[in-house]
Design brief:
Elements: H1 8-23, H2 31-37, E1 52-58, E2 61-67, E3 72-80, H3 90-104, E4 106-111, H4 123-137, E5 145-150, H5 153-166, E6 175-178, H6 190-193, H7 203-214, E7 237-242, H8 248-260, E8 265-270, H9 284-301
Parallel strand pairs: 3-4, 3-5, 5-6, 6-7, 7-8
Antiparallel strand pairs: 1-2, 2-4
Helix pairs in contact: 3-9, 4-5
Length: about 300
């Protein structure tokens, strides 16, 4: 059930999402059409005209810089987009990234990592790691970088952190995850208990998403399902999740595991919220969530 205090923008998005969920089937739009029209939260929001968006390349990975007015040039937000490992681009995420960059006070960069089904694991993670390496090679110290990601991007970010730690490399100053999909075995209790409540996803959909990304790799591999990785030594972590999500247990268990490993980890539950509610730019709940995230990243990085 959604809260009676949710905004009209959230209520509208929930209603529209439920309608799409009930119509979803094998005869839906093609992959090309889905990629062209995809927007987190279901509706596209353009970046404000004053935000500068510049195409670039990071170690061979296409990417875009997103630079709101007034942010610091020597601070970087590496944003890893979601979309079920299958969809997503700067076109679908520009407004959310710009808003979060402005709240954080850093210029943002969004790598266009390779997508499935054409490129299963580890292609996407390899691209995100290459983008991180290119940012570092440009002279930006790790302590001047924060990372963020939503949904599938919320899987790739902790996988990146684990891979960097295990390689003995410096880690970013902090990480922010929105509705992370970190257990690709789909074993969390919310996958079944909240399936009817979730206006977007079913357990079957999440399982198909997981197997499509993992390819021939076991779903319990710690870089496929970062929930199963040792999490010691990671930087401060903020995780936000909606109360109505099948991914609720992923967020909750990730924070519990991180805390048990000695990580400074915080869980924020958006009551009545759906998956990726932070992307709904005309919802006050979304703006408040990214404002809090920006403040968290600034504090954790010592930028406040």
């Amino acid at each position: 059930m959604t809260s009676t205090t949710t905004s009209p923008a959230i209520e509208r998005t929930i209603a529209e999402s439920r309608e799409r969920k009930h119509k979803r089937g094998p005869n839906g739009p093609s992959l090309e059409d889905r990629r062209a029209s995809y927007a987190p939260g279901g509706r596209p929001f353009p970046a404000p005209p004053e935000v500068r968006i510049e195409a670039t390349e990071l170690a061979g990975v296409p990417a875009s810089w997103v630079v709101p007015p007034g942010v610091a040039d020597d601070r970087v937000l590496l944003f890893v987009h979601g979309g079920g490992f299958t969809l997503g681009s700067i076109d679908s995420y520009a407004e959310l990234v710009a808003r979060l960059a402005g709240a954080t006070g850093a210029r943002a960069v969004v790598p266009e990592y390779r997508l499935v089904p054409e490129h299963p694991f580890p292609a996407g993670l390899d691209d995100v790691r290459a983008a991180w390496g290119a940012v570092r090679a440009s002279g930006v110290p790790a302590s001047s970088v924060v990372v963020a990601g939503d949904s599938a991007g919320g899987n790739l970010v902790p996988a990146l952190l684990v891979a960097l730690r295990d390689a003995g490399e410096d880690l970013p100053a902090a990480a922010y995850l929105m509705s992370p999909f970190v257990d690709l075995t789909c074993s969390g209790t919310s996958m079944t208990e909240r399936e009817d409540r979730d206006p977007l996803f079913t357990l079957d959909f999440m399982r198909r998403t997981a197997t499509g990304y993992a390819g021939n790799t076991d779903l319990t591999d710690p870089l496929v399902s970062p929930l199963f990785a040792p999490l010691h030594g990671l930087p401060p972590l903020l995780v936000q999740v909606g109360s109505e999500e099948v991914l609720y247990s992923d967020a909750e268990r990730l924070v519990d595991a991180a805390r048990a490993a000695g990580v400074d980890a915080t869980l924020e539950v958006g009551e009545g919220m759906l998956h990726d509610y932070q992307a709904i730019a005309d919802a006050p709940e979304a703006v408040a969530a990214t404002d809090r995230a920006g403040a968290f990243l600034r504090r954790a990085a010592g930028w406040a």
